[in-house]
Amino acid sequence: MDATTDKDPLVQEQIYNALCYLGESEPEEILNSCDEYLRQHDKLAYPHRVIILKAMETVVRNNISLLDKSTVKEVIRDWQQAASSVLVAVGQRFINKVMEEVLTKFQPGILPHYFVLQTFANLSVSNGE
């Protein structure tokens, strides 16, 4: 997975394809490996994190009926955290666009999801003066 940091888009695509291919035969193992990699590399630049997250999404979509309930619960929580981190990283440069997107998740009369609030808070901390 370290090759996701390669600047060549073809290499990045090959990594994505390899993760998806391996995920067909061992979906839980690939999801756990991706999760562990993202945990160990919490400073991974968001474009590279997105490659792994997209591969995880594909593996989950293609194998949802085979996944254990506890794996799915863990993946969803970690996935949401990783996605929140990506938005915060992007927000350091494009705060207006990210805030615009996050604010659409606030609906009158509906309690927002925990990760929406966490993303909102982390955006404000990372862009505070």
Automatic annotation (TrEMBL):
Which domain of life does the UniProt lineage start with?
A: Eukaryota
Q: Which GO terms describe its cellular component?
A: cytoplasm
Pfam families found in the cross-reference section:
HEAT_MROH2B_1st
InterPro entries associated with the record = Maestro_heat-like_prot, MROH2B-like_N_HEAT
Residue ranges occupied by any MROH2B-like N-terminal HEAT-repeats domain in the UniProt entry: 19-127
Q: What is this protein called?
A: MROH1 protein
Q: What gene is it encoded by? A: Mroh1_1
